[in-house]
Design a protein that fits this description.
Blueprint lengths: L7 H19 L4 E2 L1 H8 L3 H9 L11 E2 H12 L5 E6 L3 H8 L2 H4 L2 E8 L8 E2 L2 E5 L3 H7 L4 E4 L3 H14 L3 E4 L12 E4 L2 H27 L1
Parallel strand pairs: 3-4, 3-7, 4-6, 7-8, 8-9
Antiparallel strand pairs: 1-2, 5-6
Helix pairs in contact: 1-4, 2-3
The structure holds 1,4-dihydronicotinamide adenine dinucleotide.
1,4-dihydronicotinamide adenine dinucleotide binds next to helix 5, strand 4, helix 8 and helix 9.
Length: 221
């Protein structure tokens, strides 16, 4: 499995498997068949088998999957068996909301610091994390071996800050600013755009509404 390329589609589904398996473990379930997992996750059993076979098939015929083993293996693949030191740039509404969410730490994402340009925010502490001046950015990244940064600043400043982060050695950016960043190949960016997710929801609900209208019209004829 080590070093093997796993398709992007499978990677996208892994966090959901990880969540379900974590819940099963918490409720004391030791093993589960692909059929049982399929019923809970509303994914076909064949899809589950296909996805999990990517990792050398943790399942055994007639036994099912060992929940703890599978949970740990998926955790390793997702890299959450290790700690990631992270900073947040932009300590406004979104930056503070992320800092206040203690559960990221349980997944290995340790928020070491927050940065802003607003003098009224600098010096404040959010859940034990100090907000520092963005002037201290490079020094802090180097001293604390920071690898990851969440970007929660206005888009007009995002390019400049991303360049500084990369030059200082950050190689993973969790980007909330509404821009597509240009970064070198050895830097990874994960864009999170809630508005895009909302637009997908809007598309789906509009389709449902249209369908309902069509049915009503048909009935009325
Ligand atoms: P906010 O205005 O509350 O916070 C932005 C913070 O960034 C402010 O504290 C400001 O002083 C700071 N800032 C500005 N330039 C900076 C720089 N060069 N260096 C360091 N800090 C700097 O805004 P909010 O609501 O927290 O949103 C932040 C950004 O995230 C906005 O661009 C917004 O459009 C975006 N956003 C994205 C979402 C998504 O799903 N991707 C959802 C919500 C907001």
């Amino acid at each position: 499995m080590e070093g093997r390329e796993i398709s992007k589609a499978v990677i996208t589904r892994l966090p959901r498997y990880y969540r379900y398996l974590g819940e099963l473990m918490e409720s004391g379930v030791e093993r589960i068949s692909s059929n049982e997992l399929s019923a809970q996750m509303k994914v076909t059993a064949s899809q589950i088998r296909q996805d999990l076979n990517n990792f050398g098939g943790f399942g055994q015929q007639g036994y099912g999957y060992n929940v703890k083993y599978l949970y740990e293996e998926i955790g390793k693949i997702l890299g959450i068996d290790r700690k990631h030191s992270m900073i947040i740039i932009g300590a406004g509404n979104l930056g503070q909301a992320i800092a206040n969410y203690a559960n990221f730490e349980k997944r290995g994402f340790v928020i070491k610091g927050m940065f802003d340009i607003n003098p009224r925010l600098i010096g404040l502490v959010v859940r034990g994390i100090e907000i520092r001046s963005v002037d201290e950015l490079e020094e802090f990244i180097e001293a604390n071996h920071i690898q990851m940064a969440a970007l929660t600043i206005p888009k007009a400043r995002a390019y400049e800050i991303a360049d500084r982060l990369v030059a200082a050695g950050v190689n993973a950016i969790w980007n909330f600013a509404h821009v597509d960043l240009n970064v070198p190949d050895d830097v990874v960016v994960e864009n999170v755009h809630l508005s895009e997710s909302l637009m997908r929801l809007s598309y789906r609900v509009s389709r449902l509404q249209d369908e309902k209208k069509r049915k009503e019209l048909k009935k009325a004829k």
